[in-house]
Amino acid sequence: MTEREAVGIVARPSSGIAEGLALKAAEVLRQLGVEPLVEAETAAAYSNTLGKLGTFNIERDPPHKVIVIGGDGTLLRAAIRSGSNEVVFLAVRAGKRGFLLDVDESVLSERIRDFVNDKYELVLHQRIKAYVNGNQLPCAVNDVVIFTSEGSMVRLDVYHDEEKLRERVMGVDGDGLIISTTTGSTAYSLNAGGPIVDPRLDVIIITPLNPVQLFLRPVVMSRSNRLSIIMRDESGPAYLVLDGQVKVNLRPGDRVNIYPCEVPLKVARFEWWSNYYERLFARLLSYW
């Protein structure tokens, strides 16, 4: 990385902690001879401070490296908005929670220096993408969720589509369904009774939400599998939600297709796999 290549900053809005860390990050970058650029939404949220710096739009012209400061939702939103752009994120936690963000304030300056100098492990978080009636939606890092929108029962069928074969995986009458990645296995899917899956595996987890069929259990399948989800004609309306960030209305008869996303989320990590499960369970305990 040359000295002239700018590094972007995205910060969670309405957070004094995130704002302070973003200002600190900008100062560290300047000390390293790197121009800090602030994402347009962040600049608007903190117009009196960060808004005075140069800006970029993460959807159209993101720099190759972007520092994300906030919680898991901040990173997930940045990932969705960045689309297929080749971006490497540095994930900085603003507060006590946020498992996907592994850099805290105590090591911020050191990690930014490593980030600028390419001294990190690049971890690829595989994603999935959804189509609704043929219309493509952004790729999801954690999960694609179908959930009742009016409290009425969602009735759907899940199929595994091969080239010359369609296999029915399950029929669900209940609150809906979660299709999660291994990264998302410790998020909503886990709350709904799904398993913790090692993120180094390339699989997806199908987790029914409160089905009346008490025998139904989560199913783990290869991420390369292609799924079709059909909303039955007698189903109530539902929402399809991507990573808690994008919401689409679903009606009876609608079809959702799930495919592997070709572009993973790229995150600069530091000792990410060291004591991974110990950190995971400690973080889960913090929600008690």
- What CATH calls the topology of the largest domain is Rossmann fold
Let me know the largest β-sheet. 7 strands, mixed
Q: Structural class, judged by helices and strands? A: alpha+beta
Instruction: Please compute the radius of gyration using only Cα atoms.
Output: 20 Å
Distance between the termini: 42 Å
- What's the order of the H and E elements? EHEHEEHEHEEEEEEEHEEEEEEEH
At CATH's second level, what is the architecture of the largest domain? 3-Layer(aba) Sandwich
DSSP helix count? 6
**Could you tell me the number of beta strands?**
19
Low-confidence stretches: none
Query: How many domains?
Result: 2
CATH class of the largest domain: Alpha Beta
User: Spatial order of the strands in the main sheet?
Assistant: 3-2-1-4-5-19-6
Layout of helices and strands, plus pairs?
Blueprint: E1 7-11, H1 16-31, E2 36-39, H2 40-45, E3 54-56, E4 65-70, H3 72-82, E5 88-93, H4 108-116, E6 121-125, E7 128-132, E8 135-136, E9 143-148, E10 154-161, E11 166-174, E12 176-181, H5 188-191, E13 203-209, E14 219-222, E15 226-231, E16 238-242, E17 246-250, E18 255-260, E19 265-269, H6 276-285
Parallel strand pairs: 1-2, 1-4, 2-3, 4-5, 5-19
Antiparallel strand pairs: 6-19, 7-8, 7-18, 9-12, 9-16, 10-11, 10-15, 12-13, 13-14, 15-18, 16-17
